[in-house]
Design brief:
Blueprint: E1 11-16, H1 24-35, E2 39-42, H2 49-59, E3 63-68, H3 73-76, H4 80-86, E4 94-98, H5 107-116, E5 121-124, H6 129-146
Bound molecules: cobalamin.
Cobalamin is lined by residues 19-25, 28-29, 65, 67, 69-71, 95-99, 102-103, 123, 125-127, 132.
């Protein structure tokens, strides 16, 4: 008998990057993603870029969402997109949100910094998660259509 494949479920990997202990937004994001019908893979806190890449490979993610609240994101995310390209996932939708840099900085400058790091969507400070979920649905739909085998995913036997 074949394993049941997970279809029509969009798999989202998300977590907090760096040595960052702020977990409240991450918990809200977890609940919001589940409520919206996504399959949410929460990496929690203390992740490197490699952790996000490894998780995305493992679950064949449709998108990756990064949180940075203490501002370390600016350091940790410099080559975020390149790491996904190196792992053969060049078109992975990448989102980041939070207090992305240390101190106060102009929003436009912060957004363009993280876009240059390869993020498709950048949310600086207070964010409406409903808006994020709407964009995410559109982005994963597009990404899923572009894939060779869109939704089939069989959990690895452990
Ligand atoms: C609670 C809190 C703590 C708690 C954390 C408890 C916990 N385990 O979560 C404690 C007291 C432990 C703490 C510690 C520290 N904190 Co603190 N903390 C806060 C505080 C007061 C609230 C954060 C919070 O939970 N907000 C509620 C959530 C819902 O909002 P949020 O996190 O801002 O997330 C929103 C957006 O950023 C965005 N978002 C967040 N993630 C994502 C991800 C995606 C994909 C998207 C789309 C959007 C998104 O959407 C959310 C909803 O609007 C903020 C100040 C503030 N008022 O925001 C400071 C704050 C985040 N902390 C700060 C700092 C500096 C620290 C410390 C470094 C202090 C120190 N010197 O020790 C340490 C961190 C150490 C570490 N290793 O990380 C700074 C960060 C400054 C910066 N980036 O420049 C802040 C902004 C305070 C300040 N004004 O200086 N902190």
């Amino acid at each position: 008998m074949t394993e049941p494949s997970v279809t029509a479920e969009k798999r989202i990997v998300f977590g907090v990057i760096g040595n960052d202990i702020h977990v409240v937004a991450n918990r809200i994001l977890a609940l919001s993603l589940k409520d919206a019908g996504f399959r949410a893979f929460n990496l929690g806190t203390h992740n490197t870029a490699e952790d996000f890449v490894a998780a995305a490979i493992e679950v064949e993610a449709h998108a990756v969402l990064v949180s940075s609240l203490n501002g370390e994101g600016e350091h940790w995310c410099v080559d975020f997109r390149r790491r996904f390209e190196d792992a053969d996932m060049p078109d992975m939708p990448l989102y980041i949100g939070g207090n992305l840099v240390v101190g106060d900085r102009d929003e436009e400058e912060v957004v363009s910094t993280f876009k240059a790091y390869g993020f498709d969507r950048v949310f600086y400070r207070s964010t409406d998660f409903n808006e994020v979920l709407k964009l995410l649905s559109q982005d994963v739909e597009r990404q899923s259509k572009a894939r060779k085998s869109p939704d089939a995913w069989v959990p690895a036997k452990v």
